[in-house]
Amino acid sequence: MNYIDTSLVVAALDSTSEKRSKYASTILGRTREKVVSQLFLLELASAISRKPELIKAVAMEENNKPASVLLAYLVYLLSKYDLKFLPLSGEQVATPFGRVNTEVGSGLALAAELKLRSLDLLHVAQLLLFKDRGYTIESLLTSDADFLRAEKFLEQHGVKLLVIQK
Q1: Buried-most residue among 87, 93, 120, 165 (CB within 10 A)?
Q2: The architecture CATH gives domain 2-90+131-163
Q3: Do the beta carbons of residue 125 and residue 107 sit within 8 Å?
Q4: CB atoms within 10 A of CB 6
């Protein structure tokens, strides 16, 4: 399975760089067994909501509410790129600060070692949690070069990092 980072889909939707958009779309089209997390959904919703031109055609309907349009567009994108959503169980772990969800707990444990931005750190944490639950995540596809900081770490966990940047 291939874990898809939000940046790759955002790159595919980027109308300011036709070459990059086409390349990212091609990679998404050719890659099989693509999975995404709840963080992907939240991050993509945030990116799209800040770029209304991405959903302008859908939003033209007079009675459509922005939240409904956004959710419909997310469903459309998952279908278009054949992305499978993998939910996590909502489990929590104990920390010195109290109980937090497993993704945050894992991210806290990895932060000092990986030195990634918070959302990238959470993507790595979710990817590892999926692996721990038996999903065969073999690669992380992204257009975010910051993930290169975690490349050796990911390889040690059996995950190949593919940074798409044309």
Answers
A1: 120
A2: 3-Layer(aba) Sandwich (3.40)
A3: yes
A4: 24
